[in-house]
Design brief:
There is one protein chain. The protein folds into two domains: 7-39, no CATH class; 40-145, Winged helix-like DNA-binding domain superfamily/Winged helix DNA-binding domain (Arc Repressor Mutant, subunit A). The longest helix has 23 residues, at 109-131. The protein has helices at 18-21, 26-39, 44-51, 58-65, 69-81, 109-131, 133-145, and strands at residues 56-57, 85-91, 95-101. The chain contains seven helices and three strands. The radius of gyration is 19 Å and the shape is extended. Strands 1-3-2 form a three-stranded antiparallel sheet.
Length: 147
């Protein structure tokens, strides 16, 4: 599998190769769909990001992410199947289960960093637009009607 920093969409300085990206080929769309299938959803990237520095227990992840147990169990299972996370059983004086990001999850670091930066920019953009009285009025109307 191609690592993110070896992608044809990135040039040698790890910036986007616009020529390659502009090719709206079926193949490129399928690769993006594959990636979204694996890490898509509300929780998967947050789970991987939470496990980057150290393994965590199920209850720790629940507390950090503010996620319900059924959803966390489902997401962890899917991350295990896609080999981003492993479940380790530690037999100390008390049996405990830890979830750990595997080295393969490091291939997502560039993506996570870019998504984090985009999230900051987007949040600030929305906050700024809410300060504009005309946009605020339009946004409030959209929220009321749901359209």
């Amino acid at each position: 599998m191609t690592k993110l920093n070896q992608s044809p969409l990135l040039n040698k300085s790890n910036t986007v190769n616009n020529e390659e990206l502009s090719k709206c080929s079926r193949e490129n769309v399928e690769y993006i769909r594959d990636a979204l299938y694996v890490v898509g959803g509300k929780w998967k990237i947050a789970i991987i990001f939470s496990l980057r520095k150290s393994p965590k227990r199920f209850s720790e992840l629940q507390r950090i992410l503010k996620i319900g147990p059924k959803m966390l169990a489902k997401e962890l299972r899917e991350l295990e199947l896609n080999e981003f996370v492993v479940r380790e059983i530690c037999n100390d004086s008390q049996v405990k289960i830890l979830y750990k990001a595997v080295s393969y999850s490091e291939s997502l670091i560039t993506l996570l960093s870019i998504m984090r930066d985009w999230g900051i920019t987007h949040r600030n953009k929305i906050k700024d637009s809410m300060r504009d009285p005309i946009k605020k009025s339009i946004n409030n109307e959209i929220l009321k009607t749901g359209t």
